[in-house]
Amino acid sequence: MNLKKNLFALAVFLTTVYSHLLNAQCTNPAWDALSWASYSAGDIVSNDGKDWEAISSGSYQYEPSGSFGYLGWTLSADPCASSSISEPVVAATEVRANYCTTSFGVGTITSDGGSAILERGFVFGTSSGPDLSNADVLVDAGTGTGDEFEGLMENLTPETDYYIRTYATNAIGTTYGTEASFTTRATSECVSDCNLACDMTDSQWEDPTAAEWSTAPFQTVNIQDTVCITQDVTISSTISLYGMFKICNGATVTLNGAIKVYTATATNPTYKGQVVYEGCNEIFDGIGSYTGEYLNPPGINDPLQMISYCGTCDDNDQSQFFKPTVATAYWAATCRPTTSLSPLPVELIYFATSPHEEGALLTWTTASEINNSHFEIEVSYDGTHWNTIGLVQGAGNTSRKINYSFIDNNVEKGVQYYRLKQIDYNGDYAYSNIRYFSQDEKDKPTSFVAFQNIENKIEVSAVFHGAGQAYLIDMRGRIVEMKSFISSDKAGVRFNFDSYNLNEGVYFVQIKSGNALLGQKVQFVQK
After folding, report:
1. Which positions of the chain have pLDDT values less than 70?
2. Predicted pLDDT of residue 522
3. How far apart are CA 480 and CA 497, in angstroms?
4. Could you tell me the domains of the chain?
5. Per-residue burial over 251-280, b = 16 or more CB atoms within 10 Å of its CB, e = otherwise
6. Quick check: 491 and 500 in contact, CB under 8 A?
7. For the purposes of burial, counting CB atoms within 10 Å of the CB of 525, is it exposed (0-12), middle (13-18) or buried (19 or more)?
8. DSSP three-state, residue 318
């Protein structure tokens, strides 16, 4: 009986692999309703498990597989025609709501280059040309294209020049947008007891009173306007929000009227309606109503309509945003906990392994060090059990780049994993990311298969020996889940993504290990 089961499982596995090889489609970017204006004839997108080609002078705002999709799209005869993958395309960076010690960067990823965005965000500093190796980094929670996203820069110095760039990373590499510069305002110009970057270009929007909210000029917040609420206030009228509504300093907005938020949509891409919470203590109270915005198709509420920078934010917990007496419709939120910019004891900016005539060469670089006593070099043969094999003295305190190296001359056959243990003078320590090393190219990833298993989870069977990351990506290009794994068995590795209650549709599974990137589509059906 077990033999029959094993043979059946093997047959299913081989059939899946064979079918994939015969019918493989290119992993083209998902159709994005918010990016429809950027499409042109010949572009190929994925939608509803198929590849679609944009027709000449088409109406690309319609979902390709929908009732009106024929007005802009046709099934692609050659889905691989545009499958060449390149680095992302990043729009010029903007700066909004410049303040004394805070400011907002605004960015857009125009194209993913044919490969899903793995990370996007901002780099900024006091020198021109900031990048991921030499500047402060704000990583955004999203990974989409076409949508506008923000990053809150904190702990800035008043009356100081800063430079900021948007960045995006896919499987090919990282691209930076055109740099923007700004000068923080003087302390005397900013609102006391409020760290949020409030826009002072129009003073009428700084803490409007209850009486002002009841007058016509305050009942429409236009695209270019930013409301700054730093103290408790009552709103009893109906407000149309096309711009930003920022709440800070633990303020309570008692909403006895109504707020309707208008975010960017395919038909109105310039709208920028958004409510922003500075921390964890701001909230809407009252007996009024809040109406958000939904995306196309209906049923998906726009998560960018409400942003929270609370460190313990939960975007599924509406009680963090509203008291239960407030009626809500089409609500969704995004959590963007602020990034601490406090200096790390040791800023490790590079760590790599490479072959050496005496074994394995480990090299790493620090950008700065505070109270750094030494590094311990650790090795593992299974990714679980670690042994210390060497020690390299640190530089103590320095703001200069320091290069380090270590040779492991006891390299064994197969794969070894290395990490650094950085230890301070007071005994505190921290570990680096893991790097793997092998003299044999055949230990690198070669192939894998992904499928929906009987537990209604996406299962991956990867036939390779080594370390890597696996990404589950939905049709909108968003990373649903990421898993890191290590296979010490040359037969390969098998695992499930933990996500459950997935929506029906096509998902992409990508495995990245070293310089190798493998991808496959998976059709998920509710059972």
Report:
1. 1-28, 49, 77-84, 97, 141, 188-202, 296-299, 336-344, 382-384, 433-434, 436, 440-449, 454, 463-466, 475-478, 487-492, 500, 513-519, 527
2. 78
3. 10
4. 2-75 (no CATH), 89-189 (2.60.40.10), 203-335 (no CATH), 346-437 (2.60.40.10), 442-524 (2.60.40.3080)
5. bbbbbbbbbbbbbbbbeebebbbbbbbbbe
6. no
7. exposed
8. helix
